[in-house]
Structure formats: structure tokens, C-alpha cells
Amino acid sequence: MRFMETPDTPDQPTEPAAAAEPANGTAADQPTGIAAQDWATASAEPQYRAAVVDLLGALAYGELAAFERLADDAKLAPTLGDKAALAKMAAAEFHHFERLTDRLRAIDAEPTGAMEPFAKALDDFHRLTAPSDWLEGLVKAYVGDSIASDFYREVAARLDTDTRALVLAVLDDTGHGNFAVEKVRAAIEAEPRVGGRLALWARRLMGEALSQAQRVVADRDALSTMLVGGVADGFDLAEVGRMFSRITEAHTKRMAALGLAA
Amino acid sequence: MRFMETPDTPDQPTEPAAAAEPANGTAADQPTGIAAQDWATASAEPQYRAAVVDLLGALAYGELAAFERLADDAKLAPTLGDKAALAKMAAAEFHHFERLTDRLRAIDAEPTGAMEPFAKALDDFHRLTAPSDWLEGLVKAYVGDSIASDFYREVAARLDTDTRALVLAVLDDTGHGNFAVEKVRAAIEAEPRVGGRLALWARRLMGEALSQAQRVVADRDALSTMLVGGVADGFDLAEVGRMFSRITEAHTKRMAALGLAA
């Protein structure tokens, strides 16, 4: 899903080896527990297996929804070149979707079944935050994907080595981030009052994203258990709080880089 | 663009060697003139070069528009599996678009400039034929792509070897044809009166496609000259008439195969 990333995103590991470094600062430098195991070993624990199926299902549906959103935004593109650029991003999201559903099938999980629990939350998010113009679409793609990517990277550090490699691969920056940043910055420079409107829009996006995420976590036991502890290297609740702080902080920095007050 | 093809599409060559066979029945079995030359030789003729740039531009914009249409139709999909199937087709169209624009750049033509003359006709076609439901979308994709593919295959036989190989590659059936045929047939079997509505819809699509195609041909000198003669192996006007007959006939057969009266 991650296709936009500012060069200055702080403290986000980009390689599997670095990502395995624990983010909570309490563990040792070397991965331990699940994070040191491969899928064959880790999946012997049924609750861990269920959590990974949930995670891959949520991620896969997110990619499919991102594909649709980008294809939609392509219609708002002011030039043919912009349209082609968005179509390219949409196609990249679709290929991430395919890798995730291939993986679900490979671990004997039915992709549709794995995605369905997350369809409503993601559809609602996109319905409630339909951009009204090209710039709102760019800000949404940038903000939404950055937050989702930060979140999945935090989770990835706690996954088995095989699942982690896949998750990091589909979050890999495909170099499109600069596209949104450049276009939005140029628009604000040309007409500064656009910045105020887009800053409000970014705040609304963050609010809707958090409220849908909360709903998903409340609904999905396996996933939540992995996140808040109980399975192997899960977070404790205080750590979840710190994780949200880190994500919010990174968001604030990205908004500033974009010329927007967060 | 071709992603749907009935197994019984008549007389449509599928390989470059076969496609080089003249369709007007007057020439010999071996390609002659332009059809026997490679791009380096054929493009020495400026009018031929301009016609190919037009053709690739029209085809590229068609792929981009098809991408958008399929991504849009994915929203109407009744199931997650159907949605994923349409997204896959859309991504395939985008990759065809990329091959065509890469080729335009390789022959020193600016892709945007090459596409722009065809944008309005294709946009108008899609605007005037926006499907109101999932089945209309499937019929449109099937009918529209089949007709476009028949047309480009006829033209391909008259192109230089390099351009012909590219055009046939992007028209290559990616195996999605059966998807639309199966879904539409099943819907008509389940509710026969759906067939009458879809038959009317297919006729309207054919009418709009022909009227936009006519507009393009009237506007674009280089392309028209290649089609109606004047450059190398161009058609004569009687041959254009026969070509339209062949395309209409193939359309009628496809509609019958779909369970629709054409």
C-alpha cells in the first residue's frame, strides 16, 4: 500500500533486518520469539496463524481499495500525464494485492474470506472521505498510505521472518511519494489559501482513519490479541499507546513537510 | 485492449506471421510492401511514420480509457472475487498502455501529444455509454474490446513487422473473455428478460462506437490515408467497406454466442 514516503519519515526501518529491531526499546537487538522464527515454526500456534491471516486479509483489501481509489482519482487528473501517473500507482497497488492473495492461498487461507471482515471498515473510510478534487485526492493518498504504512511496519517487526518479508515488500516505497508532495506543494505556493483547506482535510482523514481502525481492532480478536499482547511478541497496552504517538508524530512531520499545519 | 475473445471469433489471425496475410484476398500469401519491411525501413516515409504515431496514440489512449472503465466497473462487482477479476483486467490494460507509450518514446514521439487527438472521441464514447449496472459493464467491455481488437488486427496486417508485433501483443487475449461471457450467459439463463435489455444495450454500443470512429477518421489525415490507401499497402474504399462488414459480422456472431440478438 505504501507508495508515498517523504525522504524524512523518521525512524522507519526499510529493510527486513532493520525492521526486525524491536520498536518498544525493551527487547535486545536480536529478534526473539516469533520474530526470530519462520512461518513453518510460528504458524504451529493457531492463534498466531489466525492473526496473520487477518493481517494479510486486511492488507489485501486495503490494496484493492487503494487501487479503486487511485483509479477514481485518475479521473480528476488535470493532465494526461497526471492521469497516467495515477494509473501506474493503481496498477502497482493491484500487484501488491495479488502477492498478498497468492500468499493467503499458499498458507491455505481463502483470500475472500480473509478480506471480508475488513471490507466494511475500509469501504466506509473511503466513502466518508471521497475527495472533492484532485488535490484532496493527492493529500488523501499521501496521508492515508503513510499512516497505514507506518502502522504495518510497526506490526511487521513482530511477525515471523517469512510474513515480515512479504509485508515489507508490499509496503515498499515505489517512488511515487514525491509525486504527491511536489504537486501539493506547488499548488499551495501558487495559491496559499489552498493550504488551509487541505490542512482541515488532512485532519479529517486522520480522524476517520483512527475511528475505523478502532472499530476493526474491537471486532477482530485474533488481530487484537497479537497487537495488545497474548501472542508471542505482542505489544502491551502502554506500547500500543506509544505506537500511536509515533505514528501521529510522523504524520505531523509529513504535514509540515507538505506545507500544512497538522 | 483486447481482453475478451470468444473461442469462435472467425478468421482472426492471432500470430504475427498469420496476421501478415493480406485480408483483402488480392495480394499474394507473402507480405509485400510495408508489411514486409521493418520499422527502420518503413518509417523513412514521413506519412507512414505519422500514421503509426496516430495509431499507437489512439491505441494507448484506448488502453488508458479501458483501464479507467474497468476500474470503475469493479465498483459495481457483486462479489469480492468479481471485483478482483476486474481489477486484474484493468492492471493488464495499464501494462499495455505502458508498452505503447514506451514504444512512442522509442520512436521519438511524445506520448501525450500522440494520444491527445483521440482523447475526446474516446472520452465521449465512454461518457455516452456509461453502464448502469454490472451486466451492462461486462457487455460493454466484451463488445467494445472485441470490435476494437478486430479493427486493430485488420490494420495490423498492413503495418511494418515491428509495429505489427507490438500491436498484436497488446491485443493479445489475456484469457479474460470467458469471464464476461460466462457471467452474462448465466444472468440471462437465470432471468431471460435480461437478454432483451442487454441486446438493446449492445446495439447502442455498436452505434456509438461507429459514430466516434467515423469522427476520428474524418479528423486524422495521416491515419485515414493509411486506412483508405495512398500509403503503401493501404486499403481502398471498397476494402474499407468489406472490413466493416467483417467486423459487424463477427460482432453478430459474438452476440449470438452470448445469447443476445444483435
Automatic annotation (TrEMBL), chains A, B:
Bias (Low complexity) ranges: 1-29
UniProt cross-references to InterPro entries, sorted A to Z: Ferritin-like (IPR012347), Ferritin-like_SF (IPR009078), Ferritin_actino (IPR059125)
Record region (Disordered): 1-30
Domain of life: Bacteria
Record domain Ferritin-like: where: 46-230
Parts of the chain that traverse the membrane: none
Pfam families (UniProt xref): MiaE_2
Gene3D superfamilies found in the cross-reference section: 1.20.1260.10
Protein name: tRNA 2-methylthio-N6-isopentenyl adenosine(37) hydroxylase MiaE-like protein
